[in-house]
Specification:
The complex is a heterodimer of chains A (163) and B (403). Chain A is an alpha/beta fold and 163 residues long. Chain A has one domain (2-159): NADH:ubiquinone oxidoreductase Nqo5 subunit (Beta Polymerase, domain 2, 2-Layer Sandwich). Chain A is 23% helix and 27% strand. In chain A, the strands form two sheets. In chain A, strands 1-2-5-4-3 form a five-stranded mixed sheet. In chain A, α1 (2-8) packs across α2. The N and C termini of chain A lie far apart (66 Å). Chain B has 403 residues and is mainly alpha-helical. Chain B has 18 helices and eight strands. Chain B folds into two domains: 14-52, no CATH class; 60-402, Cytochrome-c3 Hydrogenase, chain B. Chain B has helices spanning 9-16, 60-65, 72-77, 84-99, 105-134, 137-158, 180-202, 206-212, 220-226, 231-234, 242-245, 266-290, 308-313, 315-327, 367-372, 375-379, 384-394, 398-402, and strands spanning 20-24, 36-42, 45-52, 167-168, 171-172, 334-342, 345-353, 361-365. The chains are: A alpha/beta (163), B mainly alpha (403). The interface between A and B is large, with 35 and 40 residues.
Amino acid sequence: MLQELLESVPVISELAAREPQALLEGKRDRGEITLVIAPSRIAPVCRFLKERGFVRLSSITAVDWYPAEPRFEVVYHLHDIEHNQRLRLKCRVHEGESLESVTSVWRGANWYEREVWDLFGIRFNNHPNLRRILLPEDWTDHPLRKDFPVHGGRYDYADQEHP
Amino acid sequence: MSEPGPAQPEAVSEATGRRLVLNMGPQHPSTHGVLRLVLELDGETVVRAEPEIGFLHTGIEKQCETRLYHQVVTLTDRVDYLAPLSNNLCYCLAVEKLLGLEVPPLARWMRVMLTELTRLNSHLVWLGTHALDIGAMSVFLYCFREREDILRIFEMFSGQRMMTSYFRIGGLAVEPPRGWHRAVQNFIQAFPSRLDEYEELLTRNPIWLRRTKGIGYVSLEDLLDLGVTGPMLRAAGLAWDIRKAEPYSDYDKFEFDIPTRTESDVYARYQVRLEEMRQSTRIIRQALEGMPSGPHVADAPGIVLPDREKMKTEMEALIYHFKIVTEGFRVPPGEVYQAVESPRGELAYYVVSDGGNRPWRVYMRTPSFGNLQALPAMVEGGLIADVVAALGSMDFVLGDVDR
């Protein structure tokens, strides 16, 4: 699958030449290109792709494949407006593992990385302001993890002492 | 006193010598929802602005993982409550792409027509509230008069004014109602003259010009870097519209222009959105003239609910109905990132399937979230009174930001 992409998409073959260790897998499914990138190389890969026309970071999110290992996939959606091409990058990380922030490549990555930290608990190194963004600051869990319950405990008014 | 002129930031700093931190929101009328802005002020100049979001976070993405594929449609309405049909469309297109399902022409055209009406609806709310924020109250009343007509059309189609859920996986929820053609026709005939009315009130109004021209400027490079999409990008000179660039749902069969401006200020965004409304009327008119006939849902038993009448006579239909309602349908494993042009910019749904009957992950790339990041760049260095104008020109919906 990766071989076919290397031959047909020039950007990817250039990326493979520039970052030989970074490109782990690649596939084209339903017309969308996905590349799996080694977690340690994500920032240089993004920097290179931005230089090559992917000026826009559409979004960063994550998928929790619990109980599989490594359980998280951090997904980057890039977009080249001029050539009208979209590209999906993926980094597979274990729980507790952190990634290099891409805020130095696109300033807009700031909130997306904060959201991934907030909802999945994946840390980004060298992020200027890695605080919770959607949940209150004193929240302790990461709700989009698959082992986080959808329903809360049954709330009973009798349990509470009324002042 | 020397002669009056624009306030000198340095002079103010010397005069006061200290900074004031002001909380704007979360309950401020101009934030249209619950957005908290922490502003650091030096006199009347904004030195630093920091948006704090999350007050409307409902965990809707987590909810999506627990629902059957067709049940998620109703959740997507509630993300951006001014453009529910754009969200319906984006989600349905994503799941249809996963399923490899082709939707019949009538459904595709109906989707285009109704999402364009949604765009008008959303832009009308934007124009009315934006003008109200800046002090032009009457515009609000006119805009909501026209919006009412659009909501009546939505009600006619789906039985709902706001949370329509009219698009379903595989087509439309129900057949288009009797008399829809005339209702849309009447509206679209009157609407261009209404737009002229708004323009008469604002476009050359000296107060409006003073409050909007040159305010909230951000360069195109900064906007792209910050991840801004939609009318704001077009007001900075980039003619990029997903309806043209990556046409979906037969948009390539419609003729329309992408309006652009280069000033990238509040006034330019106003002009772009007004022109977009005119283009939307063009699209709706074409849809009315060329609306194809035929079925409103795809022929996909097991995915699309069977016809009510068939259920009374055919065993098969009854079984499919029971199966879809109780256990849904399975979607082949894979992932899809489907983007559409919502009234606010790039709206994208990233749907991941593990092969089951519930989505493994639904991520909503909402335009408001991306756009709001540009707020500090827009207001820092300006006056505090202009924050309201800049906020209005971004046209965000807090439900869309916080999800």
